[in-house]
Amino acid sequence: MMQSYDEGLEVFLKEAKQAYIKMFGPERQGDLKTFSQREVCVYEEGRRLSRALLEAHLERDKWRQPAVEEVIPCPRCQQPSQPVKGGDLELRPVTTLVGEVTYARPKYRCAHCRKIFFI
C-alpha cells in the first residue's frame, strides 16, 4: 500500500536522522579520523538516502497503476493496447547511480502487433 505524503516524509526523516547520527553520534567521532573516512561515510549515507528517495518516488509513480480509462499506445505500432490479464506488476531490478532499485510496472499487450511491453 502506498504511503501518504506525511507518512513518507516521516520515514525519510527517520532515515536522515540515522545518517546524521552515523556521522555525528558520539560513538562515531573516534572512528572518523581522516578526511577519507569522513568522505566515504558521507558518500555511503548519501547513496542510501538517495536510494530511499528514488524507491519512494517509484512507489508513488502514477504509471505503476494507470487509470483504467487511460489508453496506452503500443511503442511499436502506436495502436491501443490492453493490460495483460492477471494484472500482476512486473518487478524489474534496475541498476541506478545510487544502487539497485526495484521498478514495478504493469504489462501491456498490443493486439495488433502482439507485442508485450511495460510502461
Could you please describe the fold and organization of this structure?
The chain is α+β, with helices and mostly antiparallel strands. It folds into two domains: 1-60; 67-119, no CATH class. The chain contains three helices and four strands. It has helices at 5-24, 26-29, 35-59; strands spanning 82-83, 89-96, 99-109, 116-118. Strands 1, 2, 3 and 4 form a four-stranded antiparallel beta sheet that branches. Strand 2 (89-96) and strand 3 (99-109) form a beta hairpin. Helix 1 (5-24) runs antiparallel to helix 3. The longest helix is centred in the middle third of the chain and has 25 residues, at 35-59. It is elongated. The mean pLDDT is 87.
Properties at a glance:
4-stranded antiparallel β-sheet; 119 residues; single chain; alpha+beta
Outline:
The protein has 119 residues and is of the alpha+beta class. The protein contains 3 helices and 4 strands; from the N terminus they run αααββββ.
Instruction: Give helix and strand order, one letter per element, not per position.
Output: HHHEEEE
Calculate the terminal CA-CA distance, rounded to whole Å. 20 Å
Would you identify the regions where 5 or more consecutive residues have pLDDT less than 50? none
Question: Major β-sheet, in short?
Answer: 4 strands, antiparallel
Mean pLDDT over the residues: 87
How many individual domains? 2
Strands, helices and their partners?
Layout: H1 5-24, H2 26-29, H3 35-59, E1 82-83, E2 89-96, E3 99-109, E4 116-118
Antiparallel strand pairs: 1-3, 2-3, 3-4
Helix pairs in contact: 1-3
